[in-house]
Amino acid sequence: xxxxxxxxxxxxxxxxxxxxxxxxxxxxxxxxxxxxxxxxxxxxxxxxxxxxxxxxxxxxxxxxxxxxxxxxxxxxxxxxxxxxxxxxxxxxxxxxxxxxxxxxxxxxxxxxxxxxxxxxxxxxxxxxxxxxxxxxxxxxxxxxxxxxxxxxxxxxxxxxxxxxxxxxxxxxxxxxxxxxxxxxxxxxxxxxxxxxxxxxxxxxxxxxxxxxxxxxxxxxxxxxxxxxxxxxxxxxxxxxxxxxxxxxxxxxxxxxxxxxxxxxxxxxxxxxxxxxxxxxxxxxxxxxxxxxxxxxxxxxxxxxxxxxxxxxxxxxxxxxxx
Amino acid sequence: xxxxxxxxxxxxxxxxxxxxxxxxxxxxxxxxxxxxxxxxxxxxxxxxxxxxxxxxxxxxxxxxxxxxxxxxxxxxxxxxxxxxxxxxxxxxxxxxxxxxxxxxxxxxxxxxxxxxxxxxxxxxxxxxxxxxxxxxxxxxxxxxxxxxxxxxxxxxxxxxxxxxxxxxxxxxxxxxxxxxxxxxxxxxxxxxxxxxxxxxxxxxxxxxxxxxxxxxxxxxxxxxxxxxxxxxxxxxxxxxxxxxxxxxxxxxxxxxxxxxxxxxxxxxxxxx
Amino acid sequence: xxxxxxxxxxxxxxxxxxxxxxxxxxxxxxxxxxxxxxxxxxxxxxxxxxxxxxxxxxxxxxxxxxxxxxxxxxxxxxxxxxxxxxxxxxxxxxxxxxxxxxxxxxxxxxxxxxxxxxxxxxxxxxxxxxxxxxxxxxxxxxxxxxxxxxxxxxxxxxxxxxxxxxxxxxxxxxxxxxxxxxxxxxxxxxxxxxxxxxxxxxxxxxxxxxxxxxxxxxxxxxxxxxxxxxxxxxxxxxxxxxxxxxxxxxxxxxxxxxxxxxxxxxxxxxxxxxxxxxxxxxxxxxxxxxxxxxxxxxxxxxxxxxxxxxxxxxxxxxxxxxxxxxxxxxxxxxxxxxxxxxxxxxxxxxxxxxxxxxxxxxxxxxxxxxxxxxxxxxx
Lengths: 322, 272, 379
Hints:
The complex is a heterotrimer. Chain B is an all-alpha fold. Chain B has helices at residues 7-30, 47-53, 56-89, 96-108, 111-124, 131-155, 159-167, 172-201, 204-209, 217-227, 231-271, and one strand at residues 92-93. Chain B contains eleven helices and one strand; from the N terminus they run H-H-H-E-H-H-H-H-H-H-H-H. Chain C is an alpha+beta fold. Chain C folds into two domains: 4-95 and 171-249, 3-Layer(aba) Sandwich (Rossmann fold); 255-378, CATH 2.40.50.140. Chain C contains nine helices and 20 strands. In chain C, strands 6-7-8-3-9-10 form a six-stranded mixed beta sheet, with helices on both faces. In chain C, strands 13-12-11-14-20 form a five-stranded antiparallel beta sheet, with no helix packed on it. A five-stranded antiparallel beta sheet of chain C has the order 15-19-16-17-18, with no helix packed on it. In chain C, strand 12 (271-275) and strand 13 form a beta hairpin. In chain C, helix 3 (111-121) crosses helix 4, helix 3 (111-121) packs parallel to helix 5 and helix 4 (126-139) packs across helix 5. At the A-B interface, strand 1, helix 1, helix 2, helix 5 and helix 6 of A face helix 1, helix 3, strand 1, helix 4 and helix 5 of B.
């Protein structure tokens, strides 16, 4: 692990270089880095390599249900031997069956629409919270966070009872004579949108709130003083200044929504095409590990850009805090 | 601080919170429904709670989930705190970019990918799927959340506290355990709570990495939901919500009290 | 017992060639990456001295203090304490203690525990610790606050706890980083004198970092004025003010008027200077300036007299017009535009309630000063 050697530690303990414990302190300092580093390498990074490796192998009726490729136990010559046998059949398969392509596209579109909807719902809430009297702001904040602590599965499940044909929403609308036929919402894309907006709302509101709350309200007053009407003050001052929050919130919703499984599975019904669900079915129902690995690799590639954007946003926010 | 607490703002907050809480409230209400139909009110009853406690499968799953949650949250808190220290204190070491990437990526990574990749790892190293593998998977996921929570506290940590301790003769190790750790403890505790609830909550990763005999509560609930909505599940969910809500509310009340006391103290101190 | 005044009056080890410095910086350089915070600096501080490092932020004064405390190691050069090279000795083994600008009180410990922290680290038996803590609390008059946590104290009280904590171990040297920076003006003035008394009482060597010249002048035996990682001058407060050795120091401490000119003629005691506009002045204290050298003559505003008529006995008198007047209560500051265009700042003490020679805007006026009122500096 030469690549994680400490070149210069900011801790005063190493800067001070205690004369006898120098070796010991250096060792402890390295341990602080090495333990979580190795853990993440082993349980986060290496698994992706394995996913990639298996996506290149053939399906087999065995346990595990694939034939190994790129096995290093056979030495260099064996490695190259295998390399020739390496096949991208699974990827070819993904391109040949329109189902997968449609699933990817649908997932991206659903995630994008849901992200916009979440932003539209979340922005007024975050704005209202940021402008609330300072005394009740912590309580409001807690109320936004609280649902996040309750089970995701439960919150999705709660919507089934509401959206069913004989569910509470239809009962209400029928009794108010707004409709005379029950609406079909459950097992449609509408239900998925509702589910995603509902489940991911706190992820949108929190970053929005923190960027709006930091904003100096006298900026708006200055804009108004300089002759800017309220609506255009919002678009010219408030919104641009809340952009870091908007970007962070959208990424926090969009990225996991693309690969979402629970919501399309429970609210979207059997005919919904979303890639998380496809992967799940490929894995659990068809037991086709190589294909589901290929599905995962492509999904990961699709999400690389948004994830890197998210990383950058995080790093920038951290810089600002300092 | 100037605020405009206009009608628009109040309305958006009220509607927003109604949207957030109404489904949960309805879920809780219908757990007390006499009727077997979840959506038709048939009178008040607690019979579903009684039947819940006779459902051995559900009880077993609860026990598994609790153990996975406590163990994984505890290990994740240690690892996550170390990761947070690394991120804030060691600004220059080779591989830092990769490290911070590995800490932040799991936060947004679709669960199906994380779950699948961990499963393939366990298969590749020949680890039998079960309690142990779920716990490992949950540690990996939740340590990143702990790292973020603790890191945000460490960023605002006044480093001169540590320097003062060392100046007064405390070795780096003593400084860490007597000064740094106690001061960032609240963040570590909330990191643990977050890790625990995330573990309690997880369906997808657990489904991939768990094996026979280690069915967690979300897995159990999920399999029952697929068979149909029953008041019994509503009851189970209500209990879960109650446990978490009571915990979070107590914690925040304690926090608020400390804060109020602190402000009173500070005002008293200013008066002399 | 000798009074504080007489102790301070007689305390001049820096003039004694046989006195051995207690703290020595020898050609110390500290670099952070490409940035040189301290540049080949040498400095000697004596035992029991109250020494101030004065400079603008970023001048390297705090870095110097942190190197002494052991939080930073010099890139080059060495630091000696009582003859011992400090290199490689970690902060927790150095016989110096520091009072931090932020006070750095441990928020989770009571006042008592904060003060006892350092004593516990050195393994002092607990009865002794209790005794010492009580003593310290009495010293800073916080006996009734022993059980309080830092956030339950006012700013002034926190400052005293920080002080008590840093002197509890009886360090050889106490380092103070902007010790009064967080206090309001009135409290700061009171505390300055308390710090001086404390230093005498404990017989410690104090090294204080400050950007406040008034604070440094009030408290310190000697001041080192720093700029860009270098020491510009080390001297007593009076010397720094009355006999600055460079334009930087003259500008940095107090207000000053600068006249640029050439040495026209040198005699045994006096020097005649021709100003850039041709005006002639005669001065003493011309140092080593050779004939024809380009120099500046620096003079403090309070040493310049402004009058409507030319004083009969004046050696140096220049004519101009009153350009601006600022009445400050205890004194009045005049800005006079000389006939060559230069603006001179002069301040007059308002010793009487009504001035006998009232001057107002646009009046013709004379500025005059004695030959020994200023110093000649290299350009």
